[in-house]
Amino acid sequence: MSRIPKLALLLLLGAPLFAAPASAQTDYAGLGAESVSPATLEQFRPKPLPPEVSRRIQSMLDLRAPGTGLLAPDGKRLFFSWRVSGSDQVWRLDGPDRFPVQMTGGEDRTLPLAVTPDGKWLVVSRDRKGEENPGIYLQAVGGGALKMVQHLPKVQSRFGAISRDSRFLYFTANDQKPDSYAVYRYDIASGEKVQIFNEAGLWNVADLADDGTLLLVKYTGSQSREYVVLERGGRVTTLFGQGEKENYEAQFGAAPGELLVSTNKFGNFQRLYRWRAGNFTPITGELKWDVESFGTDHARKRLYYTVNEAGYSRTHAIDLKTGKPLALPWPADADHQLVGSATPDGRFVTLAVGTPKAPRQSYVWDWQTKKLTRWITPSAPEEDTGRFVTARLESYPARDGTPIPMFVRRPPQCEGAEAPVCPVLVHFHGGPEAQSRPGFSPLWQMFVDAGFIVVDPNVRGSDGYGRNWLDADNGFKRLDVITDIEDASKYIRSAWAKNGVVPKVGVFGGSYGGYSTLIAMTMFAGAYDAGASAVGMANLLTFLQNTAPYRRQLRITEYGDPEKDRIALLKLSPTTYIDRLKAPLLISQGASDPRVPVGEAVQMYEAAKAKGAKVELMIFADEGHGTAKRENQALEWGHILRFFQQHLQ
User: Fold this and answer.
1) In this structure, which of 30, 332, 449, 470 has its CB flanked by the most CB atoms within 10 Å?
2) 3-state SS of 595-615?
3) How far apart are CA 84 and CA 322, in angstroms?
C-alpha cells in the first residue's frame, strides 16, 4: 500500500489543520528595487565592517580562479569570465599562461557565451544590478565596443546558438509576454531580427543542426521538459516529454535523425541514450549515479559526459562514430573533472580540474598531439592553500533511519578524542534541486580558521542521488522530509558532544537554503542557536504570488499551487511559526532580486521584530539573488562571520 503524505491524509479526512495567523498573510506586492522605498533601503543598508574583519574577507576573496573559458576556433585564444575587477567581466588569453587582456568593463555583470565559428565575434551577456534581465551583445574578438543584439527593460534575452556559417545568432526572449519566450533569428551582418517561433511556454534553444533545424526545449516544471524540432520552413515536430513529468536533456547526435538524450524516464538515475524515431538505446551502462551533464563538439566527433558520484564530478569521453571510450588526462587528486568548450573541429577541448587544496586550474587538451597544456594560472596571494581542510563525506540518520549524506570540514584543533567541543555551522544549499559539493572553498576555510566545524548536508530533495531522492520533497511530501533539517542538529548535538558538553550549532543558507534556515529557526525552534538566511523565502504563498512570472510556473511544480494548495503552502511557511522564534537571526537580501522578492525579507524582519526576537536585516540596493559585486560579498560574508562568532563562540 502506498504511503499517503500526512497533510494529504488530513485533507482527505476533512480535519482542521491550523488557523493561518495574521503574520502569514501578504502585506507587500511586487518585486525589484521599485517595490521598496528609498527610506527602507537606507534603513537596512549594510554597516561597514571593522577593518581587521574586512581585510580577512578581502584576502580570502582573492583566492580564486577564472571561468573555464571558450576556445577560439583555431585553439589559439581563450575567452573567460573573471571577477578580479570587482564584478564578472570578460577576459582574453592569447596563449598559455599569457597575461590576460580585459575585454569588457564597468559594474554590470558580463559573461562570455560563445565564439562564432569564423572566429570573428564573441557573444556576451550583460545584466544590471542582479535583475536577471540580461541582454545579448557582440564584440569583436580583438576587443572594442559592444554591439547590442537585444537588451530591453524587464526582458530576459537568452542566447541559443550560432549557425555553422556564422551568419545567424538564435536567441529567446520574453518580450511579448513575461511568462512566455519567443524564438528569434538575428542576422549578424545586417542586424536584422526575425521572430521565427512564438508558441506559449518557457522555450529555449537546445541545439542547432548544420541545415538550420532547431531543437527547442519547453520547460514545464522544475524538472520536466518537452522537446520539439523546428525546421527552417517553420514546420514543428514533437519529439518527447509532452505531458510527462520526467527530466530530459537533449541535443543533436552525429547521425541524421539522431539525438543524444539524458533522462531518468527508465530508472532512478539519469542515464545517457541515443534516440531515433522514438526509440531510446543506452549509451552509458547501468549507473548508481546521475549523468549530470553532457555535450559534444560542433563536428559531433566526441561525446563528453559527467557522472555525479556522491558529489564528486567524473567526466568521460566517447568516440561518437565507434562508441569506444576515450581516455582523458585527469590527475588522481581531482575532486572535480569538468569539460568546458571544444573547438568546432573537435581537436582542442578545455579541461578544468578542481582539488581541495587549490583554486580550479584550466587546461587545453589536444586530441591530435595528445598534449595537455595549462592555460590559466589560479590566484592564491599570501596564502598557503596546502593547509586547507578537505571535506569528508559522512552521514547522519534521519528520524526514519534514512542516512543523509553530508560533507564535513573540521579544524585541526577540533579533531580527536581530546579536542575541545567546537561550534558547528550547518549550511543548507539552495535549489532545492541542487547539491552541496566537496572541493576548494576559501569562504568555508575562513569559518574553519575561525574555529567552526562546517557541515554541508544533502537532505532529501537534493540533486545527485537519483530521482527518488530528488522528488522526495515535492508538494505535500515536503512535510514528510523537512524534518531532515532538524535531525541534522539533533545528531550533531548528540554524537559530537563530549563529557557532557554539547556543541553550539548555527544554521545558514541562501535561496532555498535561506528558506531552510528560516524553517530551522521557526518550525524547529530550539534546534539551532543562531541562523543567517540569505535571499530566503519567508512565506511560500506570498513568494509565489510575487516572484517573476517566468519563475512562478516552475516553482509551482515544486512547492504547490497558490490557489489549490494554499493551506499546505502556509503550513510550510516560516512566518506561520514566527511565535516560536527565539534564537538570534540575520537576514540578507538583494533589492533587485527577481526570484525571491525583497518583500520576503522585510516581512520576515518585521514579523520577528514584532515578536521581540533578536533579528538583523541587510538589504543590498544594487544586488539581486545573492551578492555578485566584490565589495558587497565582503560585507555580506563579513557580517555572517561576525554574527556567528558573536552568538556561537
Assistant:
1) 470
2) CCCHHHHHHHHHHHHHCCCCE
3) 43
Q: Is residue 115 a contact partner of residue 122, using CB atoms and an 8 Å limit?
A: yes
Do the domain assignments include residue 549?
yes
In whole angstroms, what is the distance from residue 532 CA to residue 552 CA?
25
**Per-position DSSP letters for 321-350, written without gaps between them:** TT--EE-----TT-SEEEEEEE-TTSSEEE
Contact 408, 381 (CB under 8 A): no
Listed residue (152, 106, 104) closest to 124, CA to CA: 104
Residue 608 phi/psi, 5-degree rounding, is -65, -40
Phi/psi of residue 249, each to 5°? -130, 130
Q: Residue 565, SS3?
A: coil
All three cell numbers of 131: 535583475
Residue 500: inside a domain: yes
- Strands (E) in 433-555, as ranges, are 453-457, 505-510, 530-534
Torsion angle of alpha carbons 441, 99, 341, 444, nearest 10°? 0
Site of grid cell 527547442: 216
| Cα 205 from Cα 228, distance rounded (Å) | 10
> Count of residues for the chain?
649
> ∠ CA 227-228-229 to the nearest 5 degrees?
135
Q: Exposed, middle or buried by CB within 10 Å (0-12, 13-18, 19+), for 84?
A: middle
CA–CA separation, 545 and 465 (whole Å): 31
Residue 521 covered by a domain: yes
156 Cβ neighbours under 8 A, 6+ residues apart: 132, 133, 134, 173, 174, 181, 550
Instruction: Please name the residue that has the C-alpha cell 580550479.
Output: 360
- Answer yes or no: are the C-beta atoms of 112 and 124 closer than 8 Å: yes
pLDDT at 67: 80
Would you give the DSSP letter of residue 23?
A: G
Q: Which of 166, 175, 54 is nearest to 119 (CA)?
A: 166
- CB–CB of 123/114 below 8 Å? yes
Residue 53: what pLDDT?
84
Q: Spell out the long-range contacts of 37-46 with Cβ–Cβ below 8 A and sequence spacing 24 or more.
A: 40/602, 40/619, 41/591, 41/619, 41/621, 44/605, 44/617, 44/618, 44/619, 45/618, 45/619, 45/621, 46/588, 46/618, 46/619, 46/620, 46/632, 46/635, 46/636, 46/639
How confident is the model over 178-198, as pLDDT tens digits? 999 999 999 999 999 999 999
Domain range for 420: 6-59+388-648
Q: Would you call 142 exposed, middle or buried from its count of C-beta atoms within 10 A (0-12, 13-18, 19+)?
A: exposed
pLDDT value at residue 222: 85
Q: What is the CATH number for 554? A: 3.40.50.1820
Query: Does 423 map to a domain?
Result: yes
What are 431-476's pLDDT values in tens digits? 888 999 999 999 999 999 999 999 999 999 999 999 999 998 887 7
The whole-number pLDDT of residue 8 equals 31
Give this prediction's pTM. 0.91
**Per-residue pLDDT tens digits for 551-570:** 888 888 888 899 999 999 99
- Find cell 497533510 and name the residue: 7
How many CB atoms sit inside 10 A of residue 35's CB?
17
Number of domains in the chain: 1
Tell me which residues of the chain have a pLDDT lower than 70.
1-26
| Upper half-sphere CA count for residue 218 (Cβ side, 13 Å) | 22
Range list of H helices, 397-511: 442-449, 467-470, 478-481, 484-495
User: Which three-class secondary structure state does DSSP give residue 563?
Assistant: coil
